[in-house]
Design brief:
- This protein is of the alpha/beta class and 137 residues long.
- It has one domain: Ribonuclease H-like superfamily/Ribonuclease H (Nucleotidyltransferase, domain 5).
- Helix content is 36%, strand content 32%.
- The protein has 4 helices and 5 strands.
- The chain has a 5-stranded mixed sheet with strand order 3-2-1-4-5.
- Helix 1 runs parallel beside helix 3.
- The longest helix has 18 residues.
């Protein structure tokens, strides 16, 4: 398996209803924007915010397996990004353990960044999440 020093993760969650059947989409790119890996995966009955966190966790775990030392995450979930950055408190009891796990995983990288991007710039991850959700509903 090729190892990458720096990776960019595009993540998204998709839920039909809220809560409802959910899925995640993750696109892992190198620094040139070339996809390294991309997948969608059904994750069961969740809220939209739980799906967003599950996508983040899946992306961080993959980046670790690929040997990344530097990770930049792009998400269209303003809540996820602001909670991660400490701008919003995590009040939902079901999100707290996901948030804590994501923070723990992020600390394992030499550098970590997360940013909110417009939905239009996250289409590939969105498409994978929706495709996985529809395939399992």
């Amino acid at each position: 398996m090729t190892r990458y020093s720096t990776l960019i993760l595009h993540i998204d969650g998709s839920v039909e209803g809220n809560p409802g059947p959910g899925a995640i989409g993750v696109v892992v790119e190198d620094t040139h924007g070339t996809p390294v890996e991309a997948w969608g995966e059904a994750i069961g009955h969740v809220t939209n915010n739980q799906a967003e966190y599950q996508a983040l966790l899946a992306g961080l775990r993959k980046a670790r397996r690929l040997g990344a030392k530097h990770v930049s995450v792009r998400s269209d979930s303003q809540l996820l990004v602001r909670q991660f950055l400490g701008e919003y408190k995590v009040r939902d009891a079901k999100l707290k353990p996901l948030h804590e796990e994501a923070r723990r995983l992020a600390r394992a990288f030499q550098t970590f960044a997360i940013e909110h991007i417009p939905r239009e710039l996250n289409r590939a991850a969105d498409r994978l999440a929706n495709r996985a959700r529809l395939a399992h509903s």
